[in-house]
Q: What sequence folds into this?
């Protein structure tokens, strides 16, 4: 498996603003997954985009995938204080393969 | 919605003692994992388990570690002789057997070795 690299490492915005996080990876993938981790808790799966998809929406989340650039972005619209967490991308390379997590993007949403 | 359950939420043990961390994965899932996260660091892969055997393990998962699926529902991680550096959050995860299925994580067991 391979690890995604998230950028920026930290992001601080005000409630109501949009938050954009980016992810880069190195080799070919089956899918790209985004997870959230609140402090001291387990990772929560947010959204999965398949390699043949370019954009996917889920509620306030929008994910894009550019396989030619080996990159993905996660947009959270109209952010809330409850969105404060670390966000991780994880390239998926097969049914049996493990996921490897990087250092993530720490998002702080202030009132 | 079904979830992965881990017990205990917090385990304190003395160095050299054996600990067993318990997980109940989602019932129809086929792939099982343990990860750990030392305070302030990345979530690190330890081991994956499929079809009643280890499918992959990391360098961290040395002879002190073992996993078991003793019945149809539990998935355990045993550390035989704990060290101070084993102090971490340990997360269990499971996944369905279909392509493009995500990992479902439990809320972890915080292991403190004194």
A:
């Amino acid at each position: 498996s391979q690890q995604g690299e998230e950028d920026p490492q930290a992001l601080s915005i005000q409630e109501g603003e949009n938050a954009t996080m980016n992810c880069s990876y190195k080799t070919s993938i089956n899918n790209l997954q985004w997870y959230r981790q609140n402090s001291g808790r387990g990772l929560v799966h947010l959204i999965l985009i398949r390699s043949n998809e370019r954009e996917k929406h889920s509620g306030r989340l929008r994910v894009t995938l550019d396989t030619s650039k080996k990159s993905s972005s996660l947009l959270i619209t109209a952010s809330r204080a409850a969105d404060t967490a670390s966000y991780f991308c994880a390239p998926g390379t097969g049914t049996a393969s493990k996921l490897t997590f990087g250092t993530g993007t720490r998002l702080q949403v202030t009132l | 919605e079904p979830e992965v359950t881990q017990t205990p939420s917090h385990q304190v043990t003395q160095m050299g003692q054996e600990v067993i961390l318990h997980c109940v994965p989602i019932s129809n899932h086929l792939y099982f994992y343990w990860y750990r996260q030392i305070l302030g660091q990345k979530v690190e892969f330890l081991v994956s388990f499929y079809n009643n055997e280890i499918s992959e393990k990391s360098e961290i998962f040395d002879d002190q570690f073992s996993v078991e699926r003793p019945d149809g529902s539990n998935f355990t991680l045993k550390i035989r002789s704990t060290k101070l550096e084993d102090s971490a959050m340990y997360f269990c995860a499971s996944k369905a057997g279909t392509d493009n299925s995500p990992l479902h994580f439990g809320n972890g067991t915080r292991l403190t070795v004194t």
